[in-house]
Each structure stands twice: as C-alpha cells, then as structure tokens.
Design goal:
By secondary structure, the chain is an all-alpha fold. It is built from three helices and no strands. 70% of the residues lie in helices and 0% in strands. The chain is rod-shaped. The protein starts with 8 loop residues before the first helix and ends with a helix.
Length: 117
C-alpha cells in the first residue's frame, strides 16, 4: 500500500478484530495451561501435589518433572503475559478502527450528498 492509495478501513477493522479474537483465545489457552501445571496433581499415580500447593516436594519422583519446576513455570507465565498484553492491545486497536471506520464513511457520504444537491 502506498501513501496515495486509499485505505479500506472497514476491511482493516475486520482483519484486526479477527486477530484480536485469535490472540484472546491463545492467551486463554496459555492461562489454562499455566493454571493446570501450577495446581494439578501429577507424577506416578498422581502422588505429587501441584507446585503451588507443595512448592518443595520431598519425593525425588516429584522433582524430576521439568515443566513443574519454578523456572519453567515462570517462563510459561512470561509468555502468557505477553500474549495477554498483545490480545488487549489488538482488541483496543480493533475497537478503535471499528469506531473510526463508520464515521469516515458517513462524513464522505454527507459531503457527496451536499455537493450533488
């Protein structure tokens, strides 16, 4: 798109709205994964408690699971927060484009009708 081409704000708003929904679903899925890893029982026969419930397990079998360790959980949390912030930003931008799009078409239609009369 060059500077001389007119932008189609309605299609841009629709596209950004779809991206905001996709980012929101990704953020919700990551929050679900993070909650599951943090709270759910795991290990052989689910003997190990979740890291939030039992932060320092006494059994070696409970310590060996890499995704249940705090560094991995904090990494998942950081990716989850990044997806959440991106989802919020795209949602706000999509709403802004949706509000601006009809206003510009109404102004153009009003200007055309006043010049043709």
């Amino acid at each position: 798109m060059t500077a001389t081409e007119p932008r189609d704000d309605a299609s841009a708003a629709s596209r950004m709205d779809k991206w905001s929904v996709a980012w929101t679903f990704l953020a919700l899925a990551l929050w679900g994964l993070f909650s599951f890893l943090l709270l759910a029982d795991h290990g052989p026969d689910a003997l190990c408690r979740g890291p939030l419930v039992d932060p320092d397990p006494s059994e070696q079998a409970c310590r060996d699971e890499a995704l249940r360790q705090w560094p991995a959980l904090l990494s998942i949390l950081s990716v989850t927060l990044l997806a959440t912030i991106t989802a919020a930003a795209t949602t706000v931008y999509a709403k802004l484009l949706n509000r601006l799009s009809p206003a510009e078409t109404t102004e153009r239609d009003g200007a055309e009708s006043s010049t043709s009369a």
